[in-house]
Design brief:
Elements (H helix, E strand, L loop, with lengths): L18 H11 L1 H9 L12 H17 L1
Helix pairs in contact: 1-3
Length: 69
């Protein structure tokens, strides 16, 4: 398991048009730790887990939104 320094996940802010991109790009960067945490039954976060199709949608959106950044 990798040791990551603590980071805050960027939030989607209505008044900042690029905040959605920033939030999803961060999520892609940390997809493995996110999958690990949501898969761990002791955290009871299984309902927030994402499958490969979910990750692909985020990747596609980040790619599209990058053009506008």
């Amino acid at each position: 398991m990798h040791n990551l320094k603590p980071n805050l996940i960027p939030h989607d802010i209505v008044t900042r048009w690029n905040s959605t991109h920033d939030m999803m790009a961060f999520t892609l960067k940390y997809c493995q730790p996110i999958d690990s945490v949501t898969a761990d039954k002791s955290f009871k976060l299984w309902k927030f887990g994402m499958d490969s199709e979910d990750w692909q949608v985020i990747e596609d959106l980040v790619s599209i939104l990058q053009v506008w950044s």
